[in-house]
Amino acid sequence: MVMVALFxxxxxxxxxxxxxxxxxxxxxxxxxxxxxxxxQHSGFKSPYRGDNSLADTVEPSAQSLTATLFIGRRLxxxxxxxxxxxxxxxxxxxxxxxxxxxxxxxxxxxxxVQPQVFIARAYLQxxxxxxxxxxAVTDDVNQVGGHLxxxxxxxxxxxxxxxDFYDNNAYAKDPRTQFFNWSVxxxxxxxxxxxxxxxxxxxxxxxxKPKYAIRFSxxxxxEIANYxxxxxxxxxxxxxxxxxxxxxxxxRSGTIRCSASGTYSRAPSYKEGIDALASKDTFLLNVIRGAxxxxxxxxxxxxLGLNVDQxxxxxxxxxxxxxxxxxxxxxxxxxxxDRTVSGGLVSKGAKWKRPGDVVGIAAVVNAISPExxxxxxxxxxxxxxxxxxxxxxxxxxxxxxxxxxxxxxxQLTVDYQFVNNPGYNxxxxxxxxxxxxxxxxx
Length: 442
Prior knowledge:
Belongs to the OprB family. This protein has one domain (28-441): Porin. The radius of gyration is 21 Å and the shape is globular. It has helices at 182-185, 270-279, 282-288, 370-377; strands at 28-41, 62-74, 79-90, 116-129, 134-137, 146-149, 152-160, 200-208, 212-219, 221-222, 230-231, 237-249, 252-265, 299-311, 316-325, 339-349, 354-367, 395-405, 410-420, 431-441. Helix content is 7%, strand content 45%. The two termini are 34 Å apart. The chain has a 16-stranded antiparallel barrel with strand order 1-2-3-4-7-8-9-12-13-14-15-16-17-18-19-20. A two-stranded antiparallel ribbon has the order 5-6.
């Protein structure tokens, strides 16, 4: 059974990250990470359940494992190539179904839980100088150390996660060191194009200046909802544009990012899905849930995003995201959210003499369009949600974590999530979710 994927965060030049960087410049860059997450949730009230429901009884602990090798090689002037073999295995709670703001940012919805090897990224990146000024960049994950023009055009082409380049946030981006929940580390209303494991092929062009950046991309989309094969043609493609501007709040830095996206794919509309429920058209219903090939449908999904992070003092930062899509067409790659608002606070542990530790708390409210709501209420299924019926309510999530840096290479995290109305269903929940994460990087 083919299921959903998620991104792999790779910081761009100058971006804050989970501690991979070293002040070393050479023609090669080598880094490695491995992350293990275990989660368990409480039982909760549930008068009914469907094929994609979160289990209402206590499940056995669900574990996930990823290991990634990040290889970079400088080529000619301003150019480098990056290659990322990856191993992943395990599964999420209830196979990562039943909660739109999915609970583990390091797990996929795939049929096999045994570790599998694949190529996550393989792309070429070229920088074009626009001025005389340069800036030093450290050797980092998918970043060869050295100097880059402060003003430049950067072109990246090949295989990558589109989310590598967009929707960055200093405090809520990386599920390997920060928040677990999909709706906290990402704009979950952006149904960003990706294969089952979260990757696509295409081109990203960035204009990068000291105070702002503009980036545009065109990439392939899945042939089928949540599928491993991608396509790019006149009827199947996705474009995203983002404007990023540096903020100054007093003497403290921050960033605001505004994005817009448009995706052409074979996704049927939820109105077509509602009609299929009435006529018992199992072919179309299976297309929407990613269980059947689709050759005759198609639509255009639009989305908008706003993303802000702001440093408040040496140890404390705040962030928020707002996301929206038109909600007319079936979710095709990420998760079943059409509107989302999230925000939170993150603090370093300097006050309790643990400067390498980080504690964070965040809240999320997710919603779906009226058409999406009616489809689920009528007994429809996507590839993430479906209780067989629906007493609609906004899905609300609270998450808190403590990440302890035990040494230069190893971090250990405890995590708690509270989910009200899982899958937008007032008849089910609330749910308490407990997690433990180990992360090694060098």
